[in-house]
Amino acid sequence: DTITYPTDKDTITYPTEGPVDLQTTVTFDAQGYDTKGRLASYKETKTEKDSLTNGSELNGTTATTRDSINYFNTTGQMRDYHEVVEKGGAATITTDRTFGDATDDPAKAYNNLGFILKYKDAITSDATPQLNKTIVDFVAAAYDQRGRLTSYTETKLEKDKDYTAGSDLYWAQTTTERTN
Question: Is residue 105 exposed (0-12), middle (13-18) or buried (19+ Cβ within 10 Å)?
């Protein structure tokens, strides 16, 4: 139950806490840095197996690869990234996330304390190939004095790739508003 640091310092393996009969190992592999030394890509692999049967009843791996990580030049905060999550026996999920809006203004993405104000996800899944990208717009309205999110609005749009206005193909938009 120790954290293992290899000599290259870019791959770290550590055990995590969880159910007593579940053994979880996470390996983080930094795969690239930008010219300012910020993380540009990585792969995180999480393996979960039951310890009672040494993985014969439960043995699953989730691999998350995040690349094309870009930052706002003025603040060093994350601007956007591309992520692929593969889990054995489940759909592969791809997400392209952009913080803020189309401008290169970090004030549209983060408040003065560094909390996220807005992001947009474009999500695809190989389990739903007929769906166009699922678009999620998240806008954080407020945080309390302890930095906890107290209100937000999230709009999620899903539609069939062949959808046109007036057709009977799948189209759904859900807006969730939460306040404290």
Answer: exposed
Q: Give the rounded distance of the alpha carbon of 163 from its chain centre.
A: 27
Instruction: Round to whole Å and give the CA distance between 45 and 84.
Output: 12
Q: Could you list the pLDDT tens digit for every one of the 180 residues in the chain?
A: 455 555 554 555 555 555 557 778 888 999 999 999 999 999 999 988 877 777 677 788 999 999 999 999 999 999 999 999 999 889 999 999 999 987 788 999 999 999 999 999 999 999 988 887 888 999 988 898 888 899 999 999 988 888 777 777 888 899 999 987
Joined together, the tokens standing for residue 115 give 């909390």
* pTM for this model (two decimals): 0.81
Using CA atoms in the order 43, 44, 46, 47, what is the torsion angle rounded to 10 degrees?
Answer: 40
CA distance to 57, 137, 165, per residue, from 175 (Å): 39, 9, 20
Of the candidates 138, 80, 140, 137, which has an alpha carbon nearest to the alpha carbon of residue 113? 140
Give me the residues paired with residue 45 across strands: 27, 63
Contact 153, 179 (CB under 8 A): no
